[in-house]
Specification:
alpha/beta, 6-stranded parallel β-sheet, globular, P-loop_NTPase, GIY-YIG_endonuc, Rossmann fold, DUF2075 domain-containing protein
Length: 552
């Protein structure tokens, strides 16, 4: 068995007898059980005892509607490789969004690890397997297309880092310990943009929902929810729910409908997870039908256990203004604890590049880090808008999912009219909205400019950031200058009567810097910057040259 073997057969007892007589029964294999119904189902697994495992599946009433099988074998397979391939297949099947998978999460999630020749199995051999499945018309999309989908990136079957896995297990124990205890219990997960918060939450919620359907679990029968105050992100979670057995769209909600529903029912949820909790309201908002003072407080009151993802550097509206003090004021009323994610998992940038961005959003300008030949991340300043646009278009042609985004310095209304970003330079329309697809995955969005609200929480391969008129340069002090009067996101700046005018002004500047922080940390492989302010653009180009000369 020197080559890859992919055997497609009917799934029945006759096939089982065939498996016993061929070499596939003597090696670790990966298998797919599925059907061709209008709404097809599938189960993906791996085993070292093919005949016995498949016999168990034939006797399992949950698999009775699966009548087709694919066995995948290779002489070089080992258990690390087959587990890796099984996980990859599940992730890509979820992204393909064709099959309802019958897989449930492992009780003990496995963490991301290396093994001998992992790259061969993970890239070369998996590509070959996927192409065979496409030939057999079991799947249709290419790996390249699926890899750029947000559903793939947030799949709950993604391997977790050791830090993510430790936190996941800690939270699961926290939930189990407190499920029958009196009071409200809170655990906050803090982490910077790109630290893997949403991937962890996706994995955690899927496992909790699987345990809710497991009669042997202490979480069996629990009523659990994932709340997302971000329309684009909610689309992604609902897309994932299409493919998994125990994730239901009714358990995926926005915060205000959840609060109002539980109030009407006069009931409490068991476990509630809140993604992007820094977007929750911290004051009454009648426009969004929220009649209380703080969304997080109201969610906690209606839940036995609340798990919140939080990053104060991603607050984008005064009515959602959070700081560490306010978070502590809320959580200190309850049985609360905090865990922190510290790794940067999105950006392939070195520490010097991350330091440059962090200083930039603190209004401090440093020479750009010197370019290194082996660098997996490109940071570049552009002098001309045309070259900037062309560079992003080229990257989109090369690797896909490369988009231009901008600070909210240009008029943008939801009246279906076209509004232009930087007519004198960029001269491109603001993003349109699609009902069932996230903005960046819409192919025509390469011809548009994304706002902070379309990309927060998502990955791009390359991001081109337009710094609009609210971001300029103080030559005397060699620092950024932020001018909130030029920022056009008026909804973000509704002042709060419970804060002083000085504090309101301070928060406005902080919101603009937060938005720049979020925009600059979207790209996996590159960040391109175009400043519309000529003095800032000139200074950034000087700092780029300084970095290049430093390298020489």
């Amino acid at each position: 068995m020197n080559e890859l073997i992919v055997e497609k057969k009917d799934f029945n007892h006759d096939h089982l007898n065939h498996v016993k007589t061929v070499h596939l029964n003597n090696y670790p294999i990966v298998y797919i059980l599925y059907n061709d119904k209008k709404k097809p189902s599938a189960y993906i697994g791996q085993t070292v005892q093919a005949a016995r495992r498949l016999k168990n599946h034939l006797e399992d009433k949950r698999r009775k509607n699966l009548n087709r099988s694919i066995l995948i074998g290779h002489e070089k397979f080992n258990q690390s490789a087959t587990y890796n391939i099984e996980s990859n297949l599940i992730n890509f099947f979820i992204a393909d969004n064709r099959y309802q998978l019958q897989n449930v999460s492992q009780t003990n999630s496995r963490e991301m690890h290396d093994y001998y020749k992992k790259c061969f199995y993970d890239v070369k051999l998996f590509q070959e397997i996927w192409e065979k499945l496409r030939e057999e018309k079991v799947v249709y999309e290419t790996i390249e297309n699926l890899r750029n989908k947000d559903i793939y990136k947030l799949s709950p079957y993604k391997e977790l880092t050791s830090q993510q896995l430790d936190i996941k297990n800690e939270i699961l124990e926290f939930c189990k310990e407190n499920i029958n205890r009196e009071g409200n219990h809170v655990i906050a997960i803090e982490g910077d943009a790109g630290s893997g918060k949403s991937v962890l939450l996706s994995s955690l919620f899927n496992t909790i929902q699987d345990l809710a359907h497991d009669s042997s679990s202490s979480l069996h029968g629990t009523d659990n929810y994932l709340l997302v105050n971000h329309g684009e992100m909610l689309k992604t979670y609902k897309g994932i729910a299409n493919s998994l057995p125990n994730l239901k769209k009714k358990s995926l909600m926005k915060p205000t409908p959840f609060i109002n529903q539980k109030t009407k029912e006069d009931s409490k949820a068991d476990i509630v997870l809140v993604d992007e909790a820094h977007l929750l309201l911290t004051k009454e908002d009648s426009y969004n039908n929220f009649r209380y003072q703080n969304q997080l407080d109201e969610i906690i009151k209606r839940s036995k256990t609340t798990i919140v993802i939080f990053d104060p550097k991603q607050v984008l509206k005064i009515k959602s203004y959070w700081d560490d003090r306010l978070l502590e004021e809320i959580t200190n009323q309850y049985n609360a604890k905090t865990v922190k994610l510290t790794d940067q998992l999105r950006m392939n940038a070195n520490p010097e590049t991350m330091r440059w961005i962090d200083h930039f959003v603190a209004k401090e300008l440093l020479p750009l880090p010197p370019k290194k030949e082996d660098s997996k991340f490109e940071l570049k300043i552009f002098e001309e808008a045309s070259a900037f646009k062309e560079a992003i278009e080229c990257k989109n042609d090369e690797v896909g999912l490369s988009r231009i985004v901008s600070t909210f310095d240009y008029l943008h209304k939801k009246d279906k009219k076209t509004y232009i970003v930087d007519e004198e330079g960029i001269n491109m329309p603001w993003n349109s909205t699609q009902d069932n697809i996230t903005w960046a995955e819409y192919p025509e969005s390469i011809k548009e400019v994304g706002s902070i609200y379309t990309v927060q929480g998502f990955d791009l391969n390359y991001v081109g950031v337009v710094l609009g008129p609210s971001v300029s340069y103080d030559e005397e002090n060699d620092r950024l200058v932020i001018d909130p009067s030029k920022y056009k996101d008026t909804g973000a700046f509704f002042s709060r009567t419970d804060l002083s005018p000085e504090k309101n002004q301070e928060i406005k500047e902080e919101i603009i810097l937060n938005s720049i922080n979020v925009l600059m940390k979207r790209g996996i492989s590159g960040l391109y910057i175009y400043a519309t302010d000529s003095t800032l653009r000139k200074r950034l180009l000087e700092l780029q040259s300084k970095g290049e000369n430093q390298y020489e």
